[in-house]
Amino acid sequence: MQTQLSPEYQARADGRAAEAILRKCVHCGFCTATCPTYQLLGDELDGPRGRIYLIKQVLEGAEPTRKTQMHLDRCLTCRNCETTCPSGVDYGHLVDIGRQLVDEKVPRPAAEKTVRWLLKEGLPSPLFGPAMKLGQLVRPLLPASLQNKVPAPRNAGRLPTRTHARRVLLLAGCVQPAMMPSIHSATARVLDAAGIQGVLAPAAGCCGAVKFHLNDQSGGMAQMRANIDAWWPLVDGPDAVEAIVMNASGCGVTVKEYGHILRDDPAYAAKAARISELTQDLSELLPALVPALRSLLKHAPDASRVIAFHPPCTLQHGQKLKGGVEHHLAALGFTVQVAKNEAHLCCGSAGTYSVLNPEIAYELRDRKLGHLGELQPSVITSANIGCITHLQSGTTTPVRHWVEVLDEALTTP
Structure pTM? Predict the structure, then answer.
């Protein structure tokens, strides 16, 4: 795609980066076939190709409008289009740049700005945990729209106390400890059973994704630098951990991109690249975990009990990890299936998207649950806190992280 940057953006690094991405696009439109919002709305401007044209127009000097902003806001950033694109267009990074450029020129209404500010400041805040506990206490009294965002409390269970020669770093994150602490404790127990110690850096916090994707990119990068500082003593030196393991694929895809996001920061570029190199999704450990865990199963899993797995977009499109959870849990005897239709499509959670675009988010949720329901599962599993919470709000079938199901099946020390 030919692009002629306006003088304003020729002088900017993000403008030049966007132009390099745009030039890979060949207008083929394959991306529209796998874009969730295009599937629902049927508007070219609500598909990747249309949004690419909107960003191109801004870079060439056209004045963006609220309509431009709306179409970019409606993007889930699921990156399904990247999986489909034959030309390797780096759409996820392009839309981050495009949103930032448009927000610089198009003021948002006060109410919209307030909601976005509350999300980006509130979710990573230390006050989020107490607020969530309060919400869970009064959950039956809340309107349905709020109940959807407040999962029923779950017992986290004990944390392992053994030490092991093999150690990996875990990220507690910002919302997961308050919403579903059982995911972290299950992760720690499964790793412990396989002879791996999961350790935390207390000063590490939000991965930065919430602020970054709400166009507070400087705030998001500050959180990324803080995590690097917290982790560095544990990744550099003779007693370094062997990996940084993420049990929330949304955090995982972000941390794997620290090196890209901070590439122009002279103080952090090299460290960020090293952090990204060390980062793995929990499912990437499964090939090594399965042999160690096989003898610890309490009993052979019930083959008639179907476990449905929804692969998050951040796992299958962002991290390009597909099929691992299903394959390796099957090797342990579990019957794991993905939806027979549209397993590649987003469930509508997409970070804060379900709050900012609820109508689209709930339509995608119900569409996803319809396909998963065809499997008649006893439990639905996923690999990201956002997907789990969002899907659970639309079904009575339990929705859990796959590592929780695995943890329950093990006889752990």
Answer: 0.93
Two tokens, residue 323? 């099929």
Say how far apart CA 206 and CA 170 lie, in whole Å.
12
pLDDT above 90: residue 413:
no
The two tokens of residue 333 are 């005897």
**168 secondary structure, DSSP code:** E
CA distance 312 to 399: 13
Nearest one of 336, 313, 317 to 386, comparing CA atoms: 313
Residue 340 CB: number of other CB atoms within 10 A? 10
Nearest-5° Cα angle at 129, 127 to 132: 110
**pLDDT digits 0-9 by tens, 96-109:** 999 999 999 999 99
Residue-wise pLDDT tens digits, 128-155: 889 888 888 888 888 877 788 888 888 8
Nearest by Cα to 51 from 86, 75, 21? 75
Residue with token string 């849990």:
329
One-character DSSP codes across 325-343? HHHHHHHTT-EEE--SS-T
**From residue 236, how far is each of 280, 281, 283 by CA, in Å?**
17, 20, 24
Instruction: Give the tens place of pLDDT for each residue, 246-299.
Output: 999 999 999 999 999 999 999 999 999 999 999 999 999 999 999 999 999 988
Tokens 């939806």 locate to 339
Separation CA 236–CA 271 (nearest Å)? 10
CA distance to 86, 235, 276, 285, 327, per residue, from 289 (Å) = 34, 22, 22, 6, 13
DSSP 169: E
